[in-house]
Amino acid sequence: MHHEDFDSPTSISATRTAGEKLGSSRITDPINHPEYVNDRNQIKRAWIFLLLTFFLPGSVQLISDRKTLGKRAVTVTLTLWGLILLLVILWNIRRTLVLSLFTSNFVLVLLVILLVALAIGWLYLFADTLRVIRLKHMPPQARTPLVLGAAVLMLLAGGGLGYSAYIANTGRGALGNVFAGGTQLKEENGRYNILLMGGDAGADRVGRRPDSMTVISIDAETGQTVTISVPRNTQNAIFSEDSPMWQIYPEGYNCGDECIINSIYTDVTENHQDLYPDSEDPGAEATMDAVSGVLGLEVNNYVLIDMSGFEQLVDALGGITIDVGGEVPIGGGTDLITGEKNPIDGYIEPGVQKLDGFHALWYARSREGASDYDRQARQRCVQAAMLKQLDPYNVLTKFGDITAAGEQVVETNIPQDALSSLADIGLKAKNYELIGYAAGPPYYDDLFPTYPDFDQLHADVAKVLEDSKSGIAPSAEAQAAGFVGGSTRATGAPFESTLQIQTVAELSPNGTCSVP
């Protein structure tokens, strides 16, 4: 080959053409060669890439130099979107199935692992996107905003998934601890009957006693809910022949004035645990049997809220707001161990009050100058105020504290695998007004719960539940008779209202309250 061949016009022309083509491709390819575009387009390109990584992870890699990584990431992203869409569809046609997934320990473990893996992968994609952006080639004035923007998006993406994993793991632990086992949620005559108890084991009393007892009776089909309060001083509680308590009290719990219904818990816990060998809380099981006999309902499940952890739960919620109708003493009452009067250490003043855990507990349990029915009215206000505080923002931002307190507060024999059905019913219940009834004032006189006519009470409860299916409210005459403490029973299912609470409490302002 001759030397002149290298410098021939043809060779020089070909080399120049190839160089021009390469330079042209760089200039017209701002994705992979941002250094050949102007500052404005470089900045625009960088922000677009960051937003693409946030909204469609993997898309930047797919259009740049790491197409294999991009394909995998986009596939994962689209698959997740598809799963979310499927869950939305299932929620509308088989909601119980979706709820069962998110109350399953196995599924929650998988969810935690998935969320952590997605968080790590997403953050890696952001890091790779910054490589593609080539910050060192960016105009100096644009670098700091881009780094801050990337940091914010990475915090939202990785932090959001990380916190979701934390919530899933914490919830999984709480569900496993609170709903560790028990009796399957049972339907009786088309209803789920669950006993809700408020247990108090203060230093001034012997053992833990449920000071408040309410049966939550839920229509299994519609979710329509009726609450039936059972006064703590109910005497002569009867038991069905298939109850273990029948062996000890075949003629009812009629051992004297001290044998009111809330003492059954302590009696069985201390003396008759062998009657319920398979139960983790024989006292709660026996109380449930007693309430079943009193109301003529088959109550199969219970939830006990222990007041010993109540303060922590209220504090975890950030306190509760209540419009206090009358002065409520802190302290007072009689020490059940020594028989001496307890000192009064202060008062919860009338008016709208933001109560922390300590004051909310005293507001709910204070006995000084109050009847049991005043305390029941105040406890209903506390329950309503707590429910009001359980808004999505509060739950998400304080989830850990609320869950930790809940594990100390709640005890139940409802198993974890029944939670999906219960949650589904609870969602249905939101479509109806809550109907309230009581086996005492205002529907009966003060002596009735002490010496109840069980046949009459069974018939009244059955009618309340039957009427609840059509949402029948009591007549004006029945309301007037019942609310002044007369012996007339309501002919329909009276709706829970501030009228009921306030009128019962008119005998003592100590029990008047509302939730603003």
From TrEMBL:
<feature type="domain" description="Cell envelope-related transcriptional attenuator">
    <location>
        <begin position="209"/>
        <end position="390"/>
    </location>
</feature>
<keyword id="KW-1133">Transmembrane helix</keyword>
<feature type="transmembrane region" description="Helical">
    <location>
        <begin position="46"/>
        <end position="63"/>
    </location>
</feature>
<feature type="transmembrane region" description="Helical">
    <location>
        <begin position="146"/>
        <end position="166"/>
    </location>
</feature>
<feature type="transmembrane region" description="Helical">
    <location>
        <begin position="105"/>
        <end position="125"/>
    </location>
</feature>
<keyword id="KW-0812">Transmembrane</keyword>
<keyword id="KW-0472">Membrane</keyword>
<comment type="similarity">
    <text>Belongs to the LytR/CpsA/Psr (LCP) family.</text>
</comment>
<dbReference type="Pfam" id="PF03816">
    <property type="entry name" value="LytR_cpsA_psr"/>
</dbReference>
<dbReference type="InterPro" id="IPR004474">
    <property type="entry name" value="LytR_CpsA_psr"/>
</dbReference>
<feature type="transmembrane region" description="Helical">
    <location>
        <begin position="75"/>
        <end position="93"/>
    </location>
</feature>
<protein>
    <recommendedName>
        <fullName>Cell envelope-related transcriptional attenuator domain-containing protein</fullName>
    </recommendedName>
</protein>
<dbReference type="InterPro" id="IPR050922">
    <property type="entry name" value="LytR/CpsA/Psr_CW_biosynth"/>
</dbReference>
